[in-house]
Amino acid sequence: MDNDIQRVLYSEAKIQETCKRLGSQLTNVYRSKRPLVVCVLKGAVPFTADLIKRMDVYMDLDFIDVSSYHGGTKSSGTVKLLKDLDTSVAGRDVLFVDDIVDTGKTLVYLQRLLRNRGAASMKVCTLMDKPEARPSDGVKADYVGFQVPNEFLVGYGLDYQGKYRNLPYVGILKPDIYQA
Ligand code: PRP
Ligand code: MN
Ligand code: MG
Description:
Layout: E1 5-10, H1 12-29, E2 36-41, H2 45-52, E3 60-67, E4 80-83, E5 93-101, H3 105-115, E6 121-129, E7 143-147, E8 153-154, E9 170-173, H4 175-178
Parallel strand pairs: 2-3, 2-5, 5-6, 6-7
Antiparallel strand pairs: 1-9, 3-4, 8-9
Helix pairs in contact: 1-2
The chain binds 1-O-pyrophosphono-5-O-phosphono-alpha-D-ribofuranose (PRP), manganese (II) ion (MN) and magnesium ion (MG).
Residues 40, 43, 98 line the site of manganese (II) ion (MN).
């Protein structure tokens, strides 16, 4: 897999350091609460696993599966709900965790879906934020690890056609891999 990567953007060590920073920030935010952490499948799995270990609070964990990329390099524009939450969000402090906010369509979809379910609060934590991919008045994540350049990234949850999610770092894919 390493052979398919042109350049490593965020090393394993750098990512772990960032999880630690976000984890202590979120520990302060949710200190007297019991947040419902919602991992957005599948890309957010590695980040969620590392982040929650750095949050020193009582919390619940649930999963929602939505998909907008359908395996390619560009957002399809339509977000599909593949698996809903098992937990009721009424009265809960919900924290969405995702690997990347790109066009923001996934985030808009999730906020819309949960809007009428009576959550006490809704926040978003993303490892990566690509603000260039959406208008300046678009959606914003509340807690961000890295602001990333407008390039197609893989690793640490981010996939290309389902591959590379298990890389321990984030990198830029060699163009010949997806231009083949
Ligand atoms: C990717 C990524 C984010 C979303 C961001 O998920 O993991 O969830 O796209 O893009 P957006 O801001 O343009 O909506 P994807 O739809 O590829 O599903 P996956 O996590 O299962 O790979
Ligand atoms: Mn995703
Ligand atoms: Mg994907």
